[in-house]
Amino acid sequence: MLRTPILIVNCKAYPQGIGIHAVEIASACDKVRQELGVEIAIAVQAPDIYRIVEKFPKLPVLAQHVDPYPMGSYTGWLVAEAVKAAGAIGTLLNHSEHRLPLDTLDAAIQRCRKAGLLTVVCADTPDTARDIAKLSPDMIAIEPPELIGTGIPVSKAKPEVVKNGVTAVQQINSNIPVLCGAGITRGDDVSAALQLGARGVLVASGVVKAKDVLAAVRDLAVPLKEI
User: Per the count of CB atoms within 10 A, which of 11, 134, 142, 163 is most buried?
Assistant: First the structure.
């Protein structure tokens, strides 16, 4: 299980976050994780999983998506066992850029559980988070899509979304940690999220597009150490 509080860096499919650039971001995450003693994980494109796991064996690596199918005749789909075999410990699911119907999401969570993968499932609203909590994922990340990539932090612009999301999930299953994302770019954005009850943050462009990736990761990770 991933420890909380946690910083998860999602490389998406940005040109700054694939191939050798993904390795560079992973290096920054691994360095800060060891330096501060806090939990940091990275979510990368599937082709980058193995190379990052090989170079940074102690850094938790997540896939960005897994399909709800078993091994077999499923050409072109990404199965949980392949992600596990590449060395990932889990996956993101239902990101606003790759949403799934609730029944498909349920099947994907079950497939991951059988394969031994953790699931960090994204939700756009507290109501969606409540529905997802009933599927028993390992973590839920609240991300209002209208703030993603804007640099306007959800923890400050829409604190009620974070707070209500935490409450909604806890009413269903108090053992599911709630993270938040969308517009998180600075350490004080993380501090605000933690004060609202979140157990960590999911970030992307704030790190991947930063001029100084190492400094960006460190700034975001420092508040985790202060809990």
Answer: 142
User: Residue ranges of the domains in the chain?
Assistant: 6-225
Q: If DSSP codes are grouped into helix, strand and coil, which group holds residue 41?
A: strand
Structure tokens at 90: 């889990």
193, β-bridge pairs: none
Residue 50's Cα: distance from chain center in Å?
Answer: 18
pTM exceeds 0.90 for this model: yes
Check if the beta carbon of residue 98 is closer than 8 Å to that of residue 72.
Answer: no
Q: What is the predicted pLDDT for the residue at 206? A: 94
Q: Is the peptide bond before 5 cis (omega within 30 degrees of 0)?
A: yes
The two structure tokens encoding residue 26: 């992973």
Digit-coded pLDDT (tens) for 148-179: 677 777 778 888 989 999 999 999 999 999 99
CATH 3.20.20.70 fits 6-225, yes or no: yes
Q: Which of 65, 95, 98, 226 is catalytic?
A: 95
Q: Provide the pLDDT for residue 159.
A: 86
| From 54, 143, 146, 160, the catalytic residue | 143
